[in-house]
From TrEMBL:
The protein, known as: AraC family transcriptional regulator
Biological source species: Halomonas urumqiensis
Ranges for domain HTH araC/xylS-type: 160-258
Entries under PANTHER family matching the protein: HTH-TYPE TRANSCRIPTIONAL ACTIVATOR RHAS-RELATED, TRANSCRIPTIONAL ACTIVATOR FEAR
Source organism, top-level taxon: Bacteria
InterPro entries tied to this protein: AraC-bd, AraC_XylS_family_regulators, Homeodomain-like_sf, HTH-like, HTH_AraC
Amino acid sequence: MAYLDLRATTLDQVHVAHAHDFHQLILATCGVTELAVEGREERVTASRGCLIPTASRHEYEGDGRNRTLVLDIPLQSLSSLRNADSIARMFERPRFFTIPPQLHQLAGSLMLQLEQCPALHSEIAALLLRAIYLHFESEPLAADLDYPLAHRPCERLDLARLDTWIDRHLADEIRVEQLAALCALSVGHFHSRFRQVMGVTPQAYVQQRRLDHARTLVCHSDLSLGHIASLVGFRDQGSFSRAYRRRFDAAPSVARRDA
């Protein structure tokens, strides 16, 4: 297998400017990093990633709260990769690209796997790179890369801010009105824009984050299932267990036993 260096990190509030002799992929599962490549500035968030070709001068500064996947691809490894020519074309120039919900969820799962099994970083890296390649194959690159910044539908939705706020209030009732206010949008406009960008309603997205956090607690803590249910906003253990089973195809008790 080609050597690929994948790591999960938090980019601090420190300004860094450099270039390197390998290609690099940057994805965030949460938080924000200000990134400029060859004079083009954008934010790397849960909804925007970046491809940095070798020798491209770039500058970045994180918010200190992000969780970021950084994949280094040495040039000598390219020839041994599956679809090597297409991957090389992906890195012909710096690219910022939109991350759809499915890819965001995969990135989160892979980050968890990477943190649990760091020895498998090369295999996980190959899977992540394959997912990015398939995303670019299914979505025309030019339509994404040349989309004017002011007209990108996701730019009015600060997903990193929304995620942070949701995660701080998982035990509480979360209303669409509150989320819309964070984006300075009317409830109707926010609901339609959110569904357009994320592919699910705001309520469904909140439910997904509740359950994703619950899975971490189920598998990596000794808290009772009833306590976990209350921490992520369910009124009782029964409704929590039913929702957990629908999302993960296994009851939380079974997931804990098999963890």
